[in-house]
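Format notes (please read before filing issues)

Several people have asked whether sequences and structure tokens are stored in separate files. They are not. Every record keeps both together, in the order shown below: the sequence lines, then the token lines. Line labels are part of the format and must not be stripped during preprocessing.
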Amino acid sequence: MASWSLITDGVFNSRPLEAAAIVDALTDDLGSKLLLEALDGRAITALPEASHAGAVWERLTQAITVAPGHPNNCMRTRVIRDLLGLRRQFARWWVERITQAIGTESEVAWLKLGAACEVIAGEVIDIPGLSAQDGERAQLILNTGGLPQEGSILEEQLRRAVLDGQCSETTSVRSELASMAVAVGPAEFYSFGAGAAFFRPKASWPDRRSQAIQQLRRSGSALAGVAGLRRFQRGEKGSTFPWSNVSTALYNEVGRCWLVTEIAVIGAAMPLHSGYAVLPGAQALGAGGHPAALIAQTRAHARDVTWWRDQLKVCDDDHSQAEWALALWAIAAGDTIDELLTDFKQRLDLLPVRWRRVIRIAALRLGEAGLLAGRPVTATTATSGLLAEMLDARAGRASAAVGVKSSGTWCC
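Then the structure lines:
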């Protein structure tokens, strides 16, 4: 710290080569760790002279290039961006590298690197060939903080991914789509309100949600109002009305999507009194399902095996099958799930990867929030795969971490 302060105070400005050598020597792995801790504690300041950073830049960017997925890269990136003050230079360098990596095995590693530090925060994404072709890529692209070009294929891919629940671990609120993913994201519908006793998943930060809603309000998005319904109105405290109100309003605004499904399922799983406004004749599940009806009917039939089997007859698309599976897992009684576990496994195995991904995230988050406790599943029909992971997590045999870690956050 003392040596670094000599550099930042300008003691070696007349000897730039020696200053660069000292900076390079101070930023080995151990020195970087100590200096970043001191920087976070405001005991030191960032390097004011970029000319002193030449040797460190070359060394660290070369190390990152050789292994973009290396666990030490989070610290190396922080040294470059925060300690050396080279955020813009690093962003340009990262764009060049990810452009070269599109379509290669290292593409996801480079996206994770950028997502971990919101590398292009507030900048329009200009990366030829970049595609949100799957949920993981979509989530990482949003977390880089970049703004998709209006009307672009990438923007439409990201919008669809957000609505399909593929981006429920969003850590950025720079773009409107990222703000949408945060403001009405399922992770934000576990713990809220004064005296709330439910566990808040790690992916949820109140300040970030407030920023997201403000961003949506500035852009004129109706979703700012939808997100604002996530509160107990007069006479609703202790009931599922907030979940019913938000999921219904979201359904009315954007139509049937996974965010509507998951918010409704979370509400139905909450140990609260029933509160909803159901349309006459509305069905719970399937293409014609309504979120308020989902809450009402799944709760009423939590122990009715026949009802759950009958619901499968109207669940004839991937969304409906995934919806049935998550609702059963989250709301039905343990012995009901036991009897239907074979059907449950068959549905999981037949679903495309993107639907299995959202079920996994949702199911593990429900368990992490403590909403599956008290309804144990005793039957076992899997020794590996998604169902085995879900069974282990439900029984407390594994701590399957969900949250922003999978999207990349600082690990140092």
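For reference, the curators noted about this record: The chain has three domains: 1-85, 107-230, 232-400. The chain has a mean pLDDT of 89.
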